[in-house]
């Protein structure tokens, strides 16, 4: 019993690699299969302790912020490999030494620009080992690592399947070589048979004799034996080898087709969808380099299998023997493998950097196109040219149906619309970057009903033509950009962005270009608005913000209080409510109001917004109710309901039952004086809601000012100060004559939002300049006190 406990304790101390080597049967074969060219098993064996100590750390291969650490780990791995190879000087380790040196060089070339990809591969290998070991033990390992973090991921599984396909391709290559040798041997024996037959024919032309009869008899026996041997070779060897090879190729092509569907239809489509969502501000962690690695692996395997199938077809034509009732699969296999290659090539012609989705005429823009398998198929040996044109939604539909465009058909004129693809050896990327394109003209479709030019969607069409295999196969490839809205003036931008935002967020898979749903659940809209606001301003919308926006979008002020629970997110918001129909008693739409506030916050209020000093999205009544419970001078910053891109200050007067609203500030006001400085100017504002001293909240944003500024050009720079006429500089009482230079009468108890039925007074602010006169350099100059 003591011995068994000792063995168990010793086992628990073993490394993961040591335990993996104790696996048996299929489990051990799975461990062997997960390693290959992408990460040789010799590297795992020779550096087992180092790998487990470094790669089982907290680094996350899917987090771009860990890329610097990943680069240092990969660099250390290469150094460890080179150091290990140097000490392997004995003859028995010669092959291992070469393998380690080759792996170090391969890691340096392949993963130097993408170290996270190598860490992802290694963690997949370790995850597979860990899973198999745990299954064998049927108990948890006493390791200080999180097993769930090491479970096989999509990247590792794809690499493992590629390695399996490489091994199958290598096996069928050996089968093809043996079949060719057998066919050559058959040809030699068949040649011997024809010589025997020729000798028999020659004997029959000679005069009969006993010697001739004996020789003829020997030849006939030899002929019968040779024919029997050849028949056996044909039926038992050659035909069986052909059928077995065809069956293996058939299975390989099925595996290739399944894996290619996963890479192209799942991973690449997911990348494209995430690229589109990034247009709405969703963080985009691109794994395009990994996808290229998978596609290059597929391209290499497909090309090798295609060459094998063509060689098998050549051997078959060279020696056309067939067994009755047997179908020749080689022609069908040749067609299938060529279709797989064609699909891979055409699907991997992608737009890596999209053109702007709101495109203004006569304005420069950029885009980048990349062919993921270009380097592997040596397309760069004859660099292809790419042309760009702009097409309408209807033309995009026609293109998808017919797979071609009428020559010269386009919806506009683009300058600098041609470029030649270039191959970057270090990154193995074949791409072209268009840096100076410009849309000169646009041809629009006829509008119906309430449609506007900002509703109309176009797309940029990128086209190219190239050959592979020395001109054996010619490919015509094309790809469409994300939908583009063309504008000619800046005031069209808000509605154009509404069209783009709705399309990016609510596109459905496999849609007809560029169809989008007419209405969507509010929960999806709220998530989209929050994402866009966070991307533009640095902070997302709170649940309270989103509830307020819902009441605004649905034109129902009571909705804000009742909008709770999951059913709230299922309310359907229409496209018209979103950006077509004006808000009640306003001349702008919900989207125009939201977009103007997002723009204002991004350009002038980003830091205070991120610090939560601006409440922003809150109704007038709720603001009053909250402030009435606070001390005199408590104030709150909220976005205006009545003015596009306006922010107002609401504060409590001496009588806590009365709340005042300052006339909204806009971007024009903040271009003159910042929000923080204006808050500082207004001395009756004391506490930021609920009870934060305003200098504590805004002090770090105040503009530094010293009274003794030395003039540099003969003039003293003035300082503009914001004040509220009728309010004293130090208290909260209404007084007349507080600012003599400023005309009185600005105090206006009539709210600009009186239509909402509130009687809260709105107060205008003014900019005061109090001046003295003095002589500077013999000239009369005015300065602010």
UniProtKB/TrEMBL annotation:
Region (Disordered) location: 732-785
Positions of the SH2 domain: 609-705
Compositionally biased region (Polar residues): 762-775
What's a single GO CC term here? cytosol
Q: What protein name does the entry list?
A: Signal transducer and activator of transcription
Family statement: Belongs to the transcription factor STAT family.
Q: Which UniProt keywords apply?
A: Activator, Cytoplasm, DNA-binding, Nucleus, Phosphoprotein, SH2 domain, Transcription, Transcription regulation
Chief localization: cytoplasm
- CDD domains listed in its UniProt record: SH2_STAT_family (cd09919), STAT5_CCD (cd16855), STAT5_DBD (cd16849)
Q: Which organism is it from?
A: Daphnia galeata
Cross-referenced InterPro entries: p53-like_TF_DNA-bd_sf, SH2, SH2_dom_sf, STAT, STAT5_CC, STAT5a/5b_DBD, STAT_linker, STAT_N_sf
Short name of any one Pfam family annotated for the protein: SH2
Kindly give the SUPFAM superfamilies that the UniProt entry links to this protein: p53-like transcription factors (SSF49417), SH2 domain (SSF55550), STAT (SSF47655), Transcription factor STAT-4 N-domain (SSF48092)
List where in the cell it is found.
Answer: Cytoplasm; Nucleus
GO molecular function of the protein, one example? DNA binding
Q: Which GO terms describe its biological process?
A: cell surface receptor signaling pathway; regulation of transcription by RNA polymerase II
